[in-house]
Design goal:
- With about 240 residues, this protein is mostly beta strands.
- It has one domain: SOS response associated peptidase-like (hypothetical protein yedk fold, Alpha-Beta Complex).
- Helix content is about 10%, strand content about 30%.
- Strands 3, 4, 5, 6, 9, 10 and 11 form a seven-stranded mixed sheet that branches. A five-stranded antiparallel sheet has the order 2-1-7-8-12, with no helix packed on it.
- A hairpin with a 2-residue loop joins strand 7 and strand 8.
- The two termini are about 25 Å apart.
- It binds four DNA strands through strand 5 and strand 7.
DNA sequence: CCAGACGTTGTT
DNA sequence: GTCTGG
DNA sequence: CCAGACGTTGTT
DNA sequence: GTCTGG
């Protein structure tokens, strides 16, 4: 799954790189985004969508945690992940998966590998340094009294491929650059585009352990994604400190 | 019919 | 243990 | 996802 | 909104 990720590129750098896949991409209205090495649920995150066929692809900031349009209390139910295997069967995702698909760009994401009773965070990114595009859906909640509509999103997940399995058994669904435009096309049906979501080639990604300091979402600095130095393993030394 | 839930993750 | 906040 | 709080009264 | 359970 995906419960934490990083977008440390500036919004302009990000847009520039993604325009290779989506040449018409407009940065507005996401220009105010503040890059982060440690993005946690409930944060405002960069998304790319196309509201209507006549519109270009646009970046927007949506709150991470999908609040369905019918929710009475927008704080009660807000899944950050949606299982791609069952997304078509759940009424609460019907409209989002059919008409409100989006991309969530990231420089990389975090995943925790269980190591006995401990959990070791890993950072996973594309080997070529380009941003990866995670598959998302969004919805609009208009229950606020006269306030602006609340726009929220969630990231699709799937079973890990063989490359990812040693770290974790679930992973975010990633969209190949060639499939990005079709994923966002509001005129295509969900049944049409879901088969486009194939796991990335094994050599496309790289992963390495990072310091557990990033466990706390309050830590947001380059150290969050710095490769963990190999633990010294001197005979006689206490190995299990932390 | 109305009322109430509607999600994921992981762990046992 | 369970919920909220980041 | 993980971390951190989880309560009341009254006073400034 | 839409489905399930009573």
């Amino acid at each position: 799954m995906c419960g934490r990720f990083a977008v440390y590129s500036t919004i302009e750098e990000l847009a520039e790189l993604i325009r290779e896949a989506l040449p018409d991409l407009e940065v507005e209205p996401a220009r105010g985004f503040v890059p982060s090495y440690n993005i946690a649920p409930s944060a405002a995150i960069v998304t790319i969508g196309r509201r209507r066929p006549e519109h270009p692809h646009r970046m927007a900031l949506l709150k991470w945690g999908l609040v369905p349009s019918f929710a009475k209390d927008p704080t009660r139910m807000a899944p950050i992940n949606v299982r791609s295997e069952t997304v078509l069967t759940k009424p609460m995702f019907r409209r989002p998966i059919e008409r409100q698909r989006c991309l969530v760009p990231a420089n990389g994401f975090f995943e925790w590998k269980r190591a006995g009773s401990r959990k070791q965070p890993y950072f996973i990114r594309r080997a070529d340094g380009r941003p990866l595009l995670m598959a998302g859906i969004y919805d609009v909640w208009r229950g606020g009294e006269g306030g602006a509509p609340l726009m929220t999103c969630a990231i699709l997940t799937t079973d890990s491929n063989d490359w990812m399995k040693p770290i974790h058994h679930r992973m975010p669904v990633m969209v190949a650059p060639e499939a990005a435009a079709r994923w966002c096309d509001p005129q295509r049906s969900a049944a049409d585009v879901l088969p486009l979501l194939t796991p990335p080639p094994a050599d496309a990604l790289e992963a390495y352990p990072v310091d557990a300091r990033m466990n706390s979402p309050r830590h947001d600095d380059p150290a969050c994604i710095a490769p963990l130095p190999p633990a010294p393993d001197v005979p006689g030394d206490k190995v299990d400190s932390e």
